Amino acid sequence: MTLRTTLAHAMLGGIAVLGLVASTAAVAAPLKVDTAKSTVGAVFKQLNVPVDAKFKKFVAQIDFDSAKPEAAKASVDIDIASFDLGEAEYNKEVLKKEWFNAAQFPKATFVASAIKPTAGAPAGTKYDVTGKLTIKGKTADVHFPLTVKKEGGGQTFDGALPIKRLTFNIGESEWKDTGMVADEVTIKFHVVTTP
Description:
Residues 1-28 form the signal peptide. The protein is an alpha+beta fold and 195 residues long. Helices cover 17% and strands 47% of the residues. Strands 1, 2, 3, 4, 5, 6, 7, 8, 9, 10 and 11 form an 11-stranded antiparallel beta sheet that branches. β7 and β8 form a beta hairpin.
């Protein structure tokens, strides 16, 4: 074997390895989230009347392949100051220390630790998610059902995560009274990804 042949084989081998690394990286790349079509919100009861609110700014990162859900990764960072109750006065109030204390804790985060197919559900459609939710400096283990749908070349991820606001000290002093604002809150999300 000549030096030229050896170099050619080495170069071809190197190109093949680079190609494999590139293709692996492409598979492992996070999905592109369409923030214009995605939503994160919260539903709670005030004086027993349901209130729908939303977070206008958040960043979701999802690395998901339905063929390998055990390797999936997901996280969401929510900008607390973007919480919108539909009225400027209320929006300003919930950012205060007694509620979200947005000045000290500007972000809420969720990081998934496991995403497993739901037993008995059609393959690739429903999952059980566990992870850690941090709001106002408090972290709690959480779990919730997740529905995944393929739409065009993208996917949608829908879930509803029930929490207790007092677990995260949301509503201090007189606001601990759950007669005015219920302890139960449901965080709802609809995340749309594109090819």
